[in-house]
From TrEMBL:
Protein name, per record: Pantothenate synthetase
Compartment(s) where it occurs, according to its Swiss-Prot or TrEMBL record: Cytoplasm
SUPFAM superfamilies, sorted: Nucleotidylyl transferase
Catalytic activity line of the entry: (R)-pantoate + beta-alanine + ATP = (R)-pantothenate + AMP + diphosphate + H(+)
Organism of provenance: Leptospirillum ferriphilum
Binding-site list for (R)-pantoate: 61, 152
UniProt xrefs under PANTHER family: CYTIDYLATE KINASE/PANTOATE-BETA-ALANINE LIGASE, PANTOATE--BETA-ALANINE LIGASE
Residues that hold beta-alanine according to the record: 61
EC number(s) reported in the record: 6.3.2.1
Length: 286
């Protein structure tokens, strides 16, 4: 594995599109890597791609009161994981090169202002700015993102389609701990007692999927309200619990018939740790 630390090295070492023996698979990360990131690399290799992983804690996607300074940096461990996973190139760029003197350009979309975007203003604009820049700099054939960050995946896929980036965006299923907690770099913020309770978030989502039998939209709203109450009873501070349409990522409404499939998305705080998760709800046929 070649370790690259500048855009100059990237241009020098990365084969141009016409010189590649295999499709280039991009795996963008913020580091503090775990088996969820390993799964992205494994899927890229299964798809017969040659993998470029990037490790960059993007300051543009953090708000002023968020955890940019606290976010874990584990470079040596990240290198070991990427090398053992089969990555060909690992890019550790400097913020001065990727962000520089940003003059305020932004990429937005109505969905970027909802859910996580409503609670983290500017977050998705920062994500899309850096992802689009990585696409421009690396010209990948494919790019891999985890489905845990489902709203992010939707927005990146939408950006690629609307801006006509010549890249295939591929979502990879969420990797979970044995008790069901979605793997996340921020899980290390949980204290031992919180870690015991954290899997309740996914358990509640699974219960919701089992209960999902709406006769009308009011039933969906009632179920979402019940889920909020369940989370609060278990010590969470929920930000949102919403049934969204898989194609538009907008909240399901009365215009959507009961049999409409959905994605149930949620974000909730447990102590000082913000957790997000989601689950697919298949079409209901009562």
């Amino acid at each position: 594995m070649e370790i690259l630390t500048s855009l100059g090295e990237l241009r020098e070492k990365l084969p141009a599109p016409g010189q590649r023996k295999r499709p280039l698979a991009l795996v963008p990360t913020m580091g503090a890597l775990h088996d969820g990131h390993r799964a992205l690399v494994q899927k890229a290799l299964e798809d017969e791609g040659e993998v470029l992983a990037t490790v960059f804690v993007n300051p543009l996607q953090f708000g002023p009161q968020e955890d940019f300074d606290r976010y874990p940096r584990t470079r040596e461990a990240d290198i070991r994981l990427l090398e053992s996973a089969g990555v060909s190139w690992a890019l550790f760029p400097e913020a001065s090169e990727l962000v520089g003197d940003s003059s305020g350009f932004s990429i937005s979309h109505p969905v970027a202002e909802l859910y996580c975007g409503a609670h983290r203003p500017g977050h998705f604009s920062g994500v899309l700015f850096i992802v689009s820049k990585l696409f421009h700099l690396t010209n990948p054939d494919r790019a891999y993102f985890g489905k845990k960050d489902r709203q992010q995946l939707f927005l990146i896929d939408r950006m690629v389609r609307e801006f006509a980036f010549p890249v295939s965006v591929r979502g990879v299923d969420t990797v979970r701990e044995e008790d069901g907690l979605a793997m996340s770099s921020r899980n290390r913020y949980l204290d031992p007692e919180e870690r015991l309770h954290a899997p309740e978030l996914y358990r509640i989502l699974k219960i919701a999927r089992e209960r999902y039998a709406p006769r009308n939209h009011a039933d969906r709203l009632d179920l979402a309200s019940l889920l909020v109450g369940d989370l609060k009873e278990r010590g969470f501070r929920p930000e949102y619990v919403v049934f969204v349409h898989p194609e538009t990522f907008l909240p399901l409404s009365a215009e959507n018939p009961p049999e409409t499939p959905a994605i149930l998305i949620t974000a909730a705080w447990l102590g000082k740790t913000r957790l997000i998760d989601n689950i697919d709800i298949p079409a209901f046929h009562g």
